[in-house]
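Hi all, long-time lurker, first post. I run a small reading group and we've been trying to get comfortable going from sequence to structure in the token notation. Rather than ask abstract questions, I figured I'd post a concrete chain and ask someone more experienced to write out its structure so we can walk through it together at our next meeting. Sequence below, copied exactly:
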Amino acid sequence: MSSEEKRRDLEGRYGSTGAVHEEEAVEIGGIDVSGHWNRMYDERVIDSYNSEMIDKVTQLDGGESLDYCYQCAQCIGVCPVDQAGGDYGPRKIYRRTELGIDFFESPDLWLCTTCQNCVRVCPKEVDMVDIAPAVREEAVLEGEAPDELEDMFGNVFQYGNPQGESAKKRAKWTRNVDVDVPILPRMDDPEPVEYLWYVGDFWSYHPRGIDAAGAMAVILDALEVDYAIMGQEEKCDGDSQRLAGEPGLFEMLAEDNAEAMAKYEFDRIMVSGPHALNAFRNEYGDVVDDWDYETLHYTQVLAPLMDQVEWETELDYRVTFHDPCYLGRHNGEYEAPREMLRSIPGVELVEMPRNREDGYCCGGGGGGMWLDGFADEYQDERLSDNRMREAANTDSDVLAVCCPYEVSRFEDSVKQVGVDMEVKDIVELVQEALGAA
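-- Answer (accepted) --
Happy to help. Here is the structure in token form:
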């Protein structure tokens, strides 16, 4: 189909773009600008567009800002899905919706990872972190969510975790750690603890997450940090479920976790993952009355304590670091993980080109952790594969991470991309330098 035929086809489906003026033979200053090179259109007034599909989004609580887009395309250059061959970004979503595509029924709805990089650069504050969950909620209510998400939602509702594991197994990982892990209630010591450590689903159940949880316990013991975990009383933090379109499930989890935590006395919450940090710090207060717990990511707790560590081993690693979207852009923490890495003897920290505020997304956010199969139909590659190549180009030995989603994602990408690198959580590197690995 020629470009003219394509244009006419679009006009037939979505309405005329206005009268076209095109001279067949024109030369200006010795340059041939014949045909489409001199094409001009009559002005098209705003009421020439059918705003039905835009209005369908903007009438939702959270969807209003889609209407702010004025097509500058600043978002496209930083969108991780577009960079992975997904032909994506808020500007493209707006344009397709303006042309009559129903965003509620489009695959575009499920590709956004809510990484917030587009929001960072948008001059009009079009906020896909609000828009996508608002539209997804309606799609979920209509039973239109991808099957992978429906299965995950069901597991979380029934078992309190995406893996569908029994709550009784939540603290099973502690049995294979060489130090005691205090589990509330502590019958032998009823005193308040300084930190309630919220371990999270992946560090409780996933094999590689369990490795990181064990390393964390060893470090906390070595530093004599006063902490305890809730064991089987802990449930999924709910942040990814909220972003994937299940706010009702999120609210249930928030209330259950808050009720369990209220039984114990502690000074602050320490979390293993950025999504729990985001949920507890920014979202639970909208659901739970009197929620005022200070919440810190584990790197924020450990970084100031690194000068107290009695190191046993020099690692001799060249390490690059991946910024988690929900630790960095969403919650403003970039330095604590790097402070930890720089403190480890023998570690040389090198940065990838896309780092800190411009860090690239692993693809796990916004429900993406459960949508790789779905996304594979619409992207040239997984986001984690794209990032893994960037990490490999730093000639590093190790890609260091500090989000429970990321070790398994990037280890899959090591195999897919075919690079010679290890992927380790920062606490695993610290444990290794302690001589306790």
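A couple of things your group might point at:
The mean pLDDT is 93.
The first helix runs from residue 3 to 14.
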